[in-house]
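User: What would this chain look like folded?
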Amino acid sequence: MSTEDDVRELALALPATIEKPSYGTPGFRVRDRLFARMWDGEPDVLVVWTGGLDEKEGLLAAEPEKLFTTAHYDGHPHVLVRLTAVDREELADLLEDAWRARAPRRLVEERDAG
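Assistant: Here's the prediction, encoded as structure tokens.
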């Protein structure tokens, strides 16, 4: 089980990430590109970006008890994460993937280089 505090700690550990409100909830941005935010529709749910619609569909099919979507996000590369259903390691992976999907290529290359 993960919490909003875990989201904040893990997201802010990623390079060039800041916290800035988004739709009245905590949002996390890399170079001013939003990659994750707490969802205002339900407590303990996080919105994260994916690498595209195919990736989104794959994630939803693989982990339906942990990840979901709503009609609002149809056609958008986002999934909703039930924080109570993911452990800290899974959350870290989801945040890293979202960060990579939104970060400038050069920043991702710098992170991969070391």
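The CA atoms of residues 100 and 108 lie 6 Å apart. If you want, I can go into more detail on any region.
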